[in-house]
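re the bet — no i am not wrong, look at it urself. input seq straight from the record:
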Amino acid sequence: MKIIQILILGVFLSIFKGYSQETYTLEKCLEIAFENNFDLKGVKLKAESSKVNLNQSWGNIMPNVNGNYNLGINNGRSIDPFTNGYINQQLTFSNAGLSAGLPIFNGFKLKNSIKQSYLNLKASEMEVEEAKQNLTVNITLAYLQVLNMRDLLELNKARLEVTQKQVDRLSSFYKEGEGNPADYTDMKGQLANDEIAVIGSKNNLKVGINSLFQLLGLESDFNASFEDIDPLRDFIMYPMNDVEIYNEALQNLATFKAKELRQDAAKSAVSVAKANFTPEISLFGQLNTNYSSAAQLFTETGSTIENTGNFVNIGGQQYDVMTNKTQYQASDISYNDQFDNNLSTSYGVSVYIPLFNGFRAKNNVKLRKIELEESQIELENTKFQYKQSIELGYSNMEAAFNKYEALQQQVESFEESFRVNEIRFNNGVSNVIEYIISKNNLDTARQNLSMAHYEYLLRTKVLDYYRGSF
C-alpha cells in the first residue's frame, strides 16, 4: 500500500514539476496574448460591431416588408368592420395586413451611409492591428524586463557566492585567532548586503513576471523559465536615423491608417447629414382584409303577401294595400371566405419634402463637420506625438549605445582591478576594505552593463515598432 502511495506521489510531483517549469519564449508569449489579452478582445468586439453596422447599411437599401394580424372580442356599441354600420352586440373581429416600401431616392443618404459604415469597418480592422502592434511591443518590453531581472538575480547570486567563499575562508582564520578579526566581521556585513541584493532581485523578478502575465491574461507562474531572444546585432549603431524611422512609421503603423479611415468616415457622415435637406421618394404597397362574426349571408327562400296596414279608397270603398315580401335565410360567413371577400390593395409613390424641422438637419450637419475637424486634429496630433516620441526614442537609443560601450570598458578595468586586489587580499597584502570596494565596483559595473545591454535592446525594439517592422 505504501509503495502505491509513493508511486502516486511521485507521478503527481513529476507532473507538477513539469507544469511549474514551463518554458516561455517571446513567440509563445505573443501567441498567448493575442488569444487571451482582455483589451485586445474588446477591440475585436468593436470591429465585429462595425461589421454588423455595415451589413445593416446594406440592408437599408432593400425593400421593407411588414405584416400585421390581430384577433379580438368587442362588447357594446361599435362599428361592424364588415358593414361599417353601428351595432350593439358582442362580436369577434379580426384583420390582417401586409405592407411594403422601397426607397427610390433620398439624397444619396443610403449610399453615403454604406460608405461611412465600410470606412468605419476598415478603421476598426486597423485598430485591431494597432492593438496587436501595441500589445506586441508591450509584451516584448515586459519580456525583456523579465530577462533583465533574471540576469541581475544571477549576477547577485554569483556576487553572494564569491562573498560566501571569502566568509568561509576568513572564518577559519577567525576561529584560530589569526589575522584581523575585523576582516571577518566586515566580510560578514558584506555578505548580508549581498543577501539583501538577492532578495530584492528575486522580488523584482516576480514583479516583472507578474506584469508580463497580466498582459498574457494568465495567472502568474513564478516558476516559469524564459528563453533568451535575439542577440545585440553585433552591437552596432541602429541603421536608420529618426527622420527615416518617422517616414516608415507613417507608411506602416496601423494607428495612422486607422485615424485616416476615421477621417474619411467622418467626411461621409457629413454627406449623410446633408441628405436630410433633400426630398425622399419611395414606393409603397398595402394589402388588407378583415373578419367580423356579425357578418351574415342572406339566401332567398321564397315570398309571402303581407298587409302593409295602408288602404286606398276606390269609389267610396276602402281596400287594404298588400305587398309581396321576399323571405331570406341568414347564415354565417366563414373566416376564410371573409378574408377572401374583404381583400383590398393599395399602392403608389410617396414623396417626403422636408420644410422645417426646428433646425435639426442644419445643426446635425454642423455637428458632423465638427466631428470631421476633430478627426483631422486627432490625426495631426497623433503624427506630432509620434514624431516627438521617435526623436526621443532615437536619442535614448544613442545614449544607451554609448553607455553600453563605456560600461564595457569599465567592466574590463574593474575585472583586472578586482583580480589584483583578490590576490593581494588572499595573500594578506591588502585589507578587507580595499577588497570590498574593488568587489563592489566590479559587481556594480557588471550589473550596470547587464542593464545597459537590455536597455539598448529595448530601445532598438521600440524603434522597430515605430517602423512597423516588429
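see?? The domain at 24-62+106-278+359-467 is CATH 1.20.1600.10 (Outer membrane efflux proteins (OEP)). told u. also Confidence is low (pLDDT under 50) at residues 1-19. so pay up
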